[in-house]
Amino acid sequence: MSWIPPSTASRSPSPVNGGGEICPKAVTLYEVGPRDGLQAEAQSVSAADKIALIDKLSASGLSQIEAASFVSPKWVPQMADAAEVMAGIQRKAGARYPVLTPNMHGYEAARSAGADTAAIFGAASESFSQKNINCSIAESLARFTPVCAAAARDGVRVRGYVSCVIACPYEGPILPDAVVRVAERLLEMGCYEISLGDTIGVGTPAETQRLLDAVLKRIPVEKIAVHFHDTYGQALANILTSLGYGIATVDSSVGGLGGCPYAPGAAGNVATEDVLYMLNGLGVHTGVDLDAVVEAAWFINGVLGHPPRSKVALALRPGNTGR
Ligand code: HMG
Ligand code: MG
To answer: Which of 34, 72, 109, 219 is the most buried (most CB within 10 A)?
Structure first.
């Protein structure tokens, strides 16, 4: 008998325990593949292929697709064609296409490209802040302040990232209080949501609990998203733990692509299709079609010339008769 993967269509939502007291009935998947995924690839990908990827992801039902970064091309050459990508994508009604903007220079370029959501990216680690954006945490917050003010004037939403929420590649373990301090500052500036990044993918569910216990004492759960890289294979367990706290926005990357050029040792983000398979099995609504995401994973990995890293994309490989 062939195995039929669970889907939202084939199962009715059931009250499940996502590792804690509660599990949201619906989760927003925030797709970072075209940005976090492709920034980490050694091989350059053409703007046309990036556009085709984003359009496939839009067609899958994903409503939040981080499309590019308006950063220095000397620092991240893979994102140098951000404006071309933004000009070429088909924007689906109701979908958002956020872009990274580290400073006013990036924000203004993003606005000219028609960005509807800007993402500022800070860190809970001084060393990572220096290596990634060439300034201290305090300086980064000073750079983000005018970005948030301009965005508020322009009616652009701002998402805030905090990197190194569990550990830093240069400093080691990071205390949850350091994360809370930066997250609160980003919210005060007007961010609609804070994404907590386990940048190097070292966290376990116990560390995720310690982090969320501290963060959720100070910040409402609906303002928090989680962003796990999967270096040690803990990401799904960490996401299940986060769902148990009621967190309903999860960052993920098609095909498990991802990393950060300034975080040595970081592996890819948790794969969108792996998270989706788990959420479908839990009866959690996402509005995203699993087969379409798997197809997008095979498409971009075909461009990159290596197979997807995710278990689900391999299991549901197009033409796989074991399904
Ligand atoms: P800097 O060198 O300190 O910048 O870099 P500067 O203000 O001194 O300017 C130097 C030059 O860069 C000037 O050009 C500026 O015009 C230009 P020049 O006069 O030399 O020709 N410049 C820019 N060009 C394009 N776009 C801009 C921009 N700003 C200045 N926005 C800077 C500071 C922030 C620009 C640099 O460090 C940078 O681009 N860093 C980006 C690093 C990055 O993208 N990292 C990956 C994303 S973060 C991540 O992946 C983590 C996350 O996924 C969450 C997680 O996993 O934890 C979000
Ligand atoms: Mg990341």
So the answer is: 34
